[in-house]
TrEMBL record:
Xref: SUPFAM superfamilies: Actin-like ATPase domain
A GO molecular-function descriptor: glucokinase activity
Similarity remark: Belongs to the ROK (NagC/XylR) family.
Domain of life: Bacteria
CC annotations in GO: cytoplasm
Entry protein name: Glucokinase
Alphabetical GO biological process terms: glycolytic process
Source organism of the structure: Robertmurraya kyonggiensis
Family matches, as PANTHER family: BIFUNCTIONAL UDP-N-ACETYLGLUCOSAMINE 2-EPIMERASE_N-ACETYLMANNOSAMINE KINASE, ROK (REPRESSOR, ORF, KINASE) FAMILY
Amino acid sequence: MTEKWVVGVDLGGTTTKIAFLNTAGDILHKWEIPTDNREEGKYITINIGEAIEQKLQELGQSKENLLGIGMGAPGPVDYASGIIYNVVNLAWKDNYPLKAKLEQVTSLPVYIDNDANCAALGEMWRGAGEGAKDLICVTLGTGVGGGVIANGKIVQGISGAAGEIGHITVIPDGGAPCNCGKTGCLETVASATGIVRVATEKLNSEIEYQGKLRDVFQNKGKVEAKDVFDCAREGDSLSLAVIDEVAFHLGLVLANLGNTLNPEKIVLGGGVSKARAILLDKFQANFDKFAFSRVKDSTKISIAILGNDAGVIGAACLVMNEN
C-alpha cells in the first residue's frame, strides 16, 4: 500500500457498512457486517475492529497505512469526546463512550458524528453538493434526517443535536406522535412511514373515495409510500392530496431553513426522494412560495447521488478534516 487509506463506517441498527477509501474519497473496498446488539451492544466495536483487521489481511495490507476511522452513528454525538448521548435502535446505554471503545479495539484515531451529518458531508465532498461549502442535506427515508454544513463544517450545536430537521414541529396541535417523544414533527408527515400514516388516515376518513389507492389497500391490507407515488402518477385524487400535504410541509420547513441559512444547495436524499417529479415539483413550488426572494434565486435544490455510500464517504471525510 503506497497511498494512505481511510476507514469509513456507517453504523446502523441491523447492518454496519464499512469501507476503505483513499484520501480523495474514492471507495476502494466496501462490505457489510451485522450489527450485534447482544449484551448491551458490547460486541459492536469488537466486531468492527475484527472486520477491519480481517479485510486488511485478505488484501495483504498493513494497519500502519490507515490514517484513522470515521464513523456515522444514529443519534446525537458529542464530536469532541466521541460520546453518543442516546440511541433508539442500538442496545447501548446513554452517554456511551463510542470513540474510546473503538480506539481501544483498533489502536487507530477515531472520529464520530451523527449518521445524517456524515451523509451531508459525503454529498458535499463527492456527491450532489459538488464542493459547496454551505448546504443542507435532508434524508427522507423511514425517518427524516438532516445535516447542516456551514463554511465546509458540520454545525454541531452545543450538544450534538443541531440539524434535527425531522423534528421541527409542523403540526402544533393534534399532530401524530413521533419516536422522539414529541408530536407533529416533520418526520410524522414527510418520511416514508409518515406518508403511509397520512394516506391511511385519509383512506379511513374519506369513506366515499373509490380509486386506485383504495384498490391497493383492499388487495394488500395496507399501503406503502411507493404505492402512493405510483397511484399519484396515474392521477389518483387521494394520492395526489397526500403528496400535496407532504410537499407543503417539506417546502415550508426547508424554505424557513433557507431563509435562516441561505445555503448554496439543499440536497434531498433517501428513498422518498426517488419519487422525483411527482413530489419534487410540488415541493419546489412550495419552497419558492415561502422562501425569501434572494434565497429562492440563489439556493439550488439537488437530489443526492451517492445513495447508500454517502454515510461511509462522509465518515471518511471526518478523518480527512483532521489530517
